[in-house]
Amino acid sequence: MEAYNESLSYDKAFYAQDIAGSIAWARANKNVGILTEKEFNEIERGFSIVRKEWDTDSFQIKPGVDERLWLRDQLQTLQAHLTSLLRIIISRASTETSFLMPGYTHLQRAQPVRWSHFLLSYGFFFAADHQRLAHVLKGLNRCPLGAGALSGNVFNVDREAIARELGFDGICWNSMNAVSDRDFLLETMAWGSRFMGHVSRLSTDFILYSAQEFNFVRLADAYSTGSSLMPQKKNPDALELLRGKSGQMHGIVAGFTATMNAIPSCYNKDMQEGTQAILQTCHLLSTSTQILTGVLSTLSLLPEKMSAALEPNMLATELADHLVRRGVPFRETHHLAGRVVALAEQRGIRMDELSLEELRGVDVRFGDEVVEECFDHGRAVEKR
Fold this sequence. Notes:
By secondary structure, the chain is mainly α. It is built from 17 helices and eight strands. Helix 3 (15-31) runs antiparallel to helix 4 (37-55), helix 5 (67-95) runs parallel beside helix 11 (273-298) and helix 9 (183-210) runs antiparallel to helix 10.
């Protein structure tokens, strides 16, 4: 039972925050006369020694935890990693604007787009994640110290002074809520699940784009491996692991959500499971963000392969828009553009090889400029 009950093996990650909280609590007791100045100084000196022993891994372990302080530090570090990722995306998108590639829906070639447009689509996902992470940080940055076991304390300590000393924005107002609240853990895990969902989607796109069937991008050797059997292969291990870690993150949040479901009020031992879950969460998110940043910062592009994948049929919408500009309703032009695609397939030629006369055989309202206006991928992108 002792082994089953213990949590020290992972609680020890919080030693610095627990020491800071203990000093703040001792100071509050000194300020209301429970401790003398001398007693407080001795306590503070003792904790200074303890901290040095912890730092050198020589301390004889005693349990202690302050998840809010620790998690705040972790999420601030994660914010910095996410900022670095965004800077890489923005830097590449701003300097790699000339490369055209197919844009895909349903994994089918749809319309021509810029590589930078594609890359920034994920940039906006991650920018929104950055904003949501700031909201998670704001929600957890409330100090629970002074709540006691559930009903508060009787020594009139200044809880707001403790909160200021520890860098909190304020206090947890209700003591029963303070000891039972683990929403800040769940919100962090839920944030991580959404973020890793975006990471997984980008990873899948790059896995596809690095395959020989696409060959748009090439991963650096540091983020890929060769096959144990087939020397010609270059496997996108880093991206596949990122995609796999996404599933692990979804499992963590689902597991702890189930743990917290239907727990009665105030503290229950079930909540101990949140400590290990949040340690796993922060490690997974931090390492994944750094790996993805490394992949993006070292990724090589093959713009000639991107350009070669552009095909005339991707410009069918341009034909429809051409007729719209000449006053034809889109519900009609969509059908007419489809007829042009079918005609080219029937003739066994590319759509841009159809003559003006053949186009007007589909509909006489095609203008003299239709070929020049519609059958140019670069021009199609510039219009948008």
